[in-house]
Design brief:
Blueprint: H1 19-39, E1 46-48, H2 56-62, E2 63-68, E3 73-76, E4 79-82, H3 86-96, E5 101-106, H4 112-124, E6 129-133
Length: 135
Amino acid sequence: MRRRRFYRSQTGITDPNLTPLIDVCLVLVVILLVATPMALQSGIAVSRAASSGKTGEQVRGSRIEIRILDDQNLIVNRSPVPRASLGAVLRPMLAASQTRDVVVRCADTVTHGAFVSVLDEAKVDGAGRIAVVGD
């Protein structure tokens, strides 16, 4: 009779190699962490309100002052205005203004989103320069 020989087959690595996949995923995470703040930055140039050589009344008369009380209530040049109608009030004032300067004051309780939305709307409505004044 013939004897059968049993050969042990060599077992190779049959598991998929996950190292390159993990490396690529980590690189993508780092890229997203770096790129996300750049994508969310606002394109609004904001400066501090500085005093010029003009008198206080001339400066106040030539600029538009917005005071944000809360997310829904504003005061534009000492007149209360609901947040929804800010654009309708601000456009004619900016069209009549010589300098188109806007000064924004904000209460501490106002959310960041409401503050930035007022700045965005002022820029869209035609504000030339926007200054932020702390209370």
